């Protein structure tokens, strides 16, 4: 999974582009919901349980290795698939191909019974899912006029909380049957891909050659030379690193750190926590974006949201109770939803050059995807050295505070 702000080099939609039609936005919501359901249900629940069953003694280290290696595949395949769809000038074939390929990839994952096979299968799963994700992400700039981008972004953004709830509930339901569970998630994505491509018309765009690697590296270095953009990049990277270091190990935290009520299984606890987290995220995303617009203050909301995330992480560090985990889930959802909504708005205001906006938003995506690669290794090292998860919460809280402080040097935005 790669949280994406990518620009693929497509021509941005212009204000006079025809309306996307009533059907596109619900289909974007459906497509993103299916994608996040697989990411949460498979990576967050089924994969963790599968790794534990194969090698319970080294589950933390093994899960960190699998998550880290597969994140590299996600980071590579996302821009590669985007560049390939740019060259063809079409998105629907890539959405359909990636979605349908999720079924055999999930079948292979369900059959894997060693750490090596699980790693290979999940890397393939990440590869095909990022083909799907890259093409789906490009639909908004391709087909939606600027005047409707806000509604389209909301439809895309709501896919995360809706998909998280669906993924948690379905993952918990199939926690004792990995093979069927993996196939169900693959079928959900495939069904969404078929429905999306069957119900949306696509106008072929002029093919565009991908930017040479040397030019891409020069663009990356050039964007980070800008003072405000560099600090926005650093702040995002720090917060995302802390967030994924903890969220990736959520099931193991509930198994080995949290004192659950008698009779409650960790998978059931995830299925209860995720809706609470998602509701909080939806509320804070809407409220944070609206208030930051009304008050014309971005740095204040970004910094406060990052600090609130640090507060949330301290709660389970000082208490291993189930009540503390519920409080963490709600407060962290409020913090992360507001942060992502307002920080994205802040970034658009500090882009180095308007004509390179899509390219620079792609550079920013490294601050999303890069920490996701590092996070599993950081988490496994911290947990292994400290012998528990309290230190992981503390480290993540420190990263969140650092992310809050990183917005202070930004000069061009209030």
UniProtKB/TrEMBL annotation:
Domain (Major facilitator superfamily (MFS) profile): residue spans on this chain: 25-414
This protein's record includes keyword Protein transport: no
Superkingdom field: Bacteria
Membrane topology: Multi-pass membrane protein
Location in the cell: Cell membrane
Keywords: Membrane, Transmembrane, Transmembrane helix
Family matches, as InterPro entries: MFS (IPR011701), MFS_dom (IPR020846), MFS_trans_sf (IPR036259), Tet-R_TetA/multi-R_MdtG-like (IPR001958)
PROSITE patterns hit by this protein: MFS
Residue spans crossing the bilayer: 27-49, 61-81, 152-174, 180-199, 233-252, 272-291, 300-318, 324-351, 363-383, 389-407
PANTHER family hit by this protein: MAJOR FACILITATOR SUPERFAMILY (MFS) PROFILE DOMAIN-CONTAINING PROTEIN (PTHR23528:SF1), PTHR23528
Name the record gives this protein: MFS transporter
């Amino acid at each position: 999974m790669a949280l994406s702000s990518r620009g693929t080099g497509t021509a941005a939609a212009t204000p006079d582009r025809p309306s996307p039609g009533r059907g596109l936005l619900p289909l974007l919501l459906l497509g993103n919901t299916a994608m996040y359901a697989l990411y949460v249900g498979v990576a967050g629940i089924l994969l963790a349980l599968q790794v534990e069953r194969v090698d319970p003694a080294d589950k933390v280290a093994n899960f960190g290795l699998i998550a880290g290696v597969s994140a590299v595949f996600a980071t590579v395949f996302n821009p590669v698939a985007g560049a390939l769809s740019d060259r063809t000038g079409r998105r629907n074939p890539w959405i359909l191909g990636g979605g349908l390929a999720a079924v055999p990839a999930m079948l292979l994952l369900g059959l894997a019974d060693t750490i090596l096979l699980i790693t290979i299968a999940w890397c393939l799963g990440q590869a095909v899912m990022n083909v799907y994700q890259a093409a789906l992400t490009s639909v908004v700039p391709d087909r939606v006029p600027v005047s409707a981008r806000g509604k389209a972004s909301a439809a895309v953004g709501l896919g995360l909380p809706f998909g998280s709830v669906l993924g948690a509930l379905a993952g918990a339901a199939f926690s004792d049957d990995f093979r069927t569970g993996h196939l169900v998630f693959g079928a959900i994505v495939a069904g969404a891909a078929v429905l999306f491509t069957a119900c949306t018309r696509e106008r072929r765009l002029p093919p565009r050659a991908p930017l040479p690697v040397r030019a891409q590296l020069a663009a990356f270095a050039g964007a980070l030379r800008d003072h405000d953009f560099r600090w926005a990049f650093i702040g995002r990277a720090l917060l995302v690193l802390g967030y994924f270091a903890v969220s990736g190990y959520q099931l193991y935290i509930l198994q080995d750190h949290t004192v659950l009520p008698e009779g409650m299984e960790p998978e059931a606890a995830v299925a209860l926590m995720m809706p609470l987290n998602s509701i909080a995220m939806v509320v804070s995303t809407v409220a944070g974006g609206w208030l930051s617009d009304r008050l014309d203050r971005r740095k204040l909301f970004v910094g406060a949201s990052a600090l609130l995330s640090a507060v949330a992480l301290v709660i389970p560090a000082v208490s291993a109770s189930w009540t503390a985990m519920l409080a963490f889930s709600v407060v962290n959802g409020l913090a992360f939803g507001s942060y992502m909504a307002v920080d994205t708005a802040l970034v658009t205001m500090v882009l180095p050059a308007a004509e390179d906006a899509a390219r620079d938003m792609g550079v920013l995506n490294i601050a999303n995807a890069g920490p996701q690669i590092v996070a599993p290794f950081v988490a496994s090292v911290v947990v292994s050295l400290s012998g528990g998860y309290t230190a992981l919460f503390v480290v993540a809280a420190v990263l969140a505070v650092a992310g809050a402080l990183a917005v202070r040097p930004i000069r061009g935005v209030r």
